[in-house]
Amino acid sequence: LVHELDVLVGSLEKGVFEWVEVPCPAKMSEVVAKYDPEALTKRLKAVSASRWDEEMPCMWEGKEVMRQNGYDMAWGFLFDHIHHRGQLTTYLRPMGAKVPAIYGASADEQMQD
Known about the structure:
Layout: H1 2-14, E1 17-19, H2 28-34, H3 37-46, H4 49-53, E2 55-60, E3 63-69, H5 70-89, H6 107-110
Parallel strand pairs: 1-2
Antiparallel strand pairs: 2-3
């Protein structure tokens, strides 16, 4: 998810979306160290308004697979993050944790101990 945010912002800055697989970090501390929401926000704010309307090529392994404007690309990334957040919550209960409220109270929060 952290890599996706960096790729999205970098794509908007460059005007071309190119997904490159990166190895999964060995430790969570590496993920946390890479995630800098303030820097990402600053970079997003610096993207020109016209870039959001501009159609950009979406590249995979050197080939253009589609074109999208910046708005549509960002929406796609948002929906992917929502999807993965849901996936991650499915791991909590088997690990003994309670599922937190995401879209309102969860069943775990409504249960009485």
